Every structure is written in structure tokens, then in C-alpha cells.
Amino acid sequence: MSKTVYLLLPAFLVVLGVGLIPTISLINYSVQTPFGEVNKFVGLENFRKVFFDTRFIEAFQRNITFSALALAIEIPFGIGLALILYEKGKLNTLISMIITIPVLIPPITIGLLWRLMARENGTLRNLMNFLGFYYDPYRVPEQAFGTIVAMDVWHWTALICLVVSAGLAGMDRSPVLSAKTEGATRWQIFRHIELPALSFPLVFVSLLRLIDTLKIYDEATVLTAGGPGQTTEFLSLYVKKTAIDQFIVGYGAALSLIYNLIVLLLAWLLLIVMTKGKGVV
Amino acid sequence: MGINSKTIVRSILIILVTIAFVFPVWNMISASFSSKLAVEEGRLLIPDGYLGNWERALSGSWAEGLVNSLIITISSVLFTLLISFPAAYVISRYHFMADKHIFFWFLATRMAPAAALVLPYLVIFRAVGLWDTIPGVVIAYFGFNIPLSVWLFTSFMSVIPKEIDNQAFIDGYSLWAYFRKIFIPLCMPAIGVVSFFTWFFSWSDMFFATVLTSFQSKPLNALLMVTLGRVGYGVEYGLASAAGVITIIPGLVLLYWAKTYLSKGFTFGRI
User: Fold this and answer.
1) Alpha carbon of B213 to those of A265, B4, B44, B201, B220: distances in Å?
2) Which residue segments constitute the domains of chain B, with CATH numbers given?
3) What is the ipTM of this complex?
4) Which chain A positions have a beta carbon within 8 Å of B124's beta carbon?
């Protein structure tokens, strides 16, 4: 033990340096108002301000709406795809590869792909106009929001499909077979046999996606840059604008910490789920 | 008859899904090979074969950006492997007090939103001269790459029986010789997976790259963000698309290999 423990040292120092020290610094900044050269201790004043910051609260509500919508669409889609692609075959392998493409594309490029389609003369916009819908996500806030949800569904449905497929592959098929011989419908089989067996992977992947949707930055910023107005400004973008672009260090740090805490709370839940269902995912 | 209509519905569904997933990517590839006018007018079904975007995307500051991206990504992968592999070995071999808490702390570092951590990085890096340098970006990525890698390695290594270690040490292997001749070859699949996720994070990050670099060491994604941010001046979508195509090439090359690991690995990888 004593001989090998030094092997831990580099990793320990790195996590200390890039994990712990920045967090301590954040706490340190958050109780001050560094304004020019004068640093003034203000206690919890910055945190108090966060709770009265309508822009923050709106961004938070927006983020929750976004997460709920994205998950509500992605999860049934992902389950459906996994069930369709369950039978092995060359075609199904090819399709599961095609739908995996977005997962391997950097988020910034996902944003670019969708902006190319949603911009003026973009394919999606032309198609919508051709079908007789007025579509302009750079003018209509609801359409901007909807496009971001659609983009997220496009990006991540494959991940849910993959996790569900892994869950289906790992489950015991004999109840399904006996249910089939007794004349159960496809829906009954899914509802009473497959869905209960998938509960753990589904909780796991939902939490994972929930955390990810709360962190969304690259795609949404490239697509709409928070606009029109501030109608698609998510938490990450607001925190970044305040802390980095305007460089309001004290208040920015308080915002960062609260944002961090929200995500961490969900991460903690995820950890509990994972340790309970060890070996299933 | 019943089977027939079912097959038709299924085929239509499959075709629609394929178009929905392939078309956006084709749209970008096509834009990268199209002249400015064609891009602006949205005639992108078939590119007109204009190569100007690619000439620009592969020269000047864009070429430098690509080189920076490659340096950052490759050194991230190498250093992450070097630092996390030995640490994971120790963790997988010995039990610690409160190792669950350490584990959560690791997880927390990885899960933290980039937007909420970047402020102290910016302040500290400016103070110590790491801002706008390639090592600075690589170090910032460590915070995300190393916890995940240690975790993936540890879960892989704890399945390898300790008896192999003990027998090798009895046979007179030094730790280093044991690593080189026995343990590292055994861990090759895990090394592949860890390299993949480290590469993916470092190659696709835009947030840290934008905030922590300025003139000297902007990687490709940061340049792309600058280009896409110039909304008022008319974005050069053709050029941006060429850069975008470069960013997706490694992922598409790895698609087949990665798919076998994705279902298991990506669930961990997103953490």
C-alpha cells in the first residue's frame, strides 16, 4: 500500500486543483463585491439578490419547461425506436447506426446544423412555408423554443434508445414468450412485462437527460443566442453573460453556485439510483 | 395482405427516420461545397462544387485553430490516461475510508455545469498566466476528463482478480514490469473507452475553449463560435459549414467502433 499510494498523487492533485480550488474561489467571490480595486465583504447579500432576480427566475422556469418538454418527447420516442429495432437484422443495425450519428456530433455543430435549416432560406423554414405554415424562429419566441426542443430530441433520442435496447437485451424473455402464447397483445406485453423490467434504466437515463438539459448551452446559443429578446435564454447562458461577459464577479459567483447546487442535487439523486441498481446499466 | 401493409408502413417509417437523421448532416456538407449565393438562397439539395470555403477553412487562422484543436485533444487524451490509469489501479486494489464520498466528489466535479465553474478558471488562469494558452485549456479539461476516466478504469479494474497481481509480484515482477507486460494489455479495452470519451469531451467542448482562449490558442470550435456569433454582419454559413464538417469527421469515423461501447459507455460518458 505505502509503495503504490504515490500513484494516486497526480490524480489527487489535479482534482484538487481543477475541482476544489475553483469551488472554494467561487464561494470566496460570492460573498464579496469586487469592484475595481476595492473588495468589500457583503455576506449573503449576493445570494439574497439571486432570489429576487426576475431574469434568473425566468431562465430557471424556462429551463424546467424545456427539460419537461424534451423528456416527454424523447423518452416515448426512444422506447418506441428500441422496440422497433429490437429484432436483429442488417437493416436494423444500419438504422441504429444512423440514429446514433447526432450523439457523436459536437453540440456546437448540432447548433450549426439546425441554424442552417432554420435561418432565412433554410430548408426547414422553406419546407414549413411550402406547407403553408408561417415559421420564423428568429421572430416568434414559441417557435424558437420549439425548435430548440426539436433539436434536443433529434440529438438525444438515440441515447435513450441505446439504454432501453441494452435493458431489453438484458431482460429475461421467457415471460414474453408465454404471454404471447396466451394471446397477449403487443401493448399488454409492453405495459405489464417489458416496462416494469425497464424501470431502472428509464429512471437512470431520465435523470441523466434532465441534468443534461439543465446544462444546455452550446446548441441553444448557436441556434438562437437566447433570442428573440431573452425568450430562449437558459440558465447557463444567463450565468455566462453575467459572470463572464459583464464580469460581475461577486454576483456572478453567487449565480454560479446556486446553478451548480441545482445540478448537484440531481447528480446526487442519480448516484443513489445508480448504486441501488448496480450492474443493470 | 396484413403482412404487406405492415411492411409498407414500416418501410415508410424507416425511410422517414433515415431522412430526418441524415438530411441535416447532408445539408451542412452541401453548404460547405456551395458558393455564397447558393447558400444564401438556400439551394442546398445538391452542392455546386465551390471549393472556396474549404480553401479558407484549411488555411490561415482556421488551419491554426485545427492544429490547436488537435494538440489540445491529443494531449488531453495522453495526460488523462497517464494520470488516471495508475490512480485507478490503486483505488481498485485498496479500500479507503469514505470512498463513497470521494466517489461522489469525483462525480460532482464531472457533473458541474461548465457555465458555473468557468468564472474561477478565468480569474485564476489570468493571474497565473495560463489564460489563452494550450496547457491552460488542457488543464481545464482535466477537471472533467480525469474523474470520469478514474471511474471507468476503476470499475473495469476491480473485475480483474487481485491474485494476478500477487502471483506476478511473487514471480519477481516489479510494479512497472507488471504494468507493462500484464496489466496494461489486460486493460486495453478500458484504455480504448477512456481515450474515446476523453477525446470526445476535448474535441467537442466549445464553452471553455471560448472563454479561456483569445488570440494565441483558439481551437476550431472557438473560432466557429466567433464566426456564428457575428449575426449583424451576415454569417458566412459556407465557411462555418466547412469547419462544422471537420468537427464531425472523427465522430463519423469512429461511429461503427463506438456503437458497440455507446450503450454502456455513453451512459457513463455523459456523467
Assistant:
1) 31, 59, 34, 17, 11
2) 1-50 (no CATH), 54-269 (1.10.3720.10)
3) 0.87
4) 21-22, 25
